[in-house]
């Protein structure tokens, strides 16, 4: 009986325009990718502040932030490929869909740098974390300058 309820709940949750998908429509996909970027911002900001000495260095928290970024940096991209997600209102520039290969390459480099940051954070030393945070940070501007409207 319990399984039946779960099935009913699941089928109600996926009655949107894009059936059997995580996104009910293009606006929902935009919301997903924007929220993903906000979570990236929060987790990154704390690491940035530790590197700048604006908050005390906490090796355990740095590890958690870096591990979160490994997952979070995988999230936004699929939401750029939902049908209509290029036309929905957002800060994403049309250039993304004209240069999808380049955009994807930037997204992949970002994820690789998150993995490197995670390895550096595992060391527990600021000496290793600092350059990894700086390298990771470069990805934001490199992509935003080209593909994000202000
Ligand atoms: C490969 C490209 C790319 C990279 C790398 C990237 N971003 Fe973005 N970011 C975007 C795009 C495109 C948007 C616009 C998304 C939209 O409006 O649908 C965006 C939007 C945002 C937003 C606004 C979200 C909202 O609520 O509208 C924040 C905050 C953000 N990015 C933070 C970051 C930070 C911090 C980094 C680096 C640690 C980063 N991004 C790296 C492409 C990127």
TrEMBL record:
The keyword Secreted does not apply. Residues 1-19 form the signal peptide. The keyword Electron transport applies. It holds the Pfam family Cytochrom_C_2. Keywords: Electron transport, Heme, Iron, Metal-binding, Signal, Transport. InterPro entries: Cyt_c/b562, Cyt_c_II, Cyt_c_prime. This is C-type cytochrome.
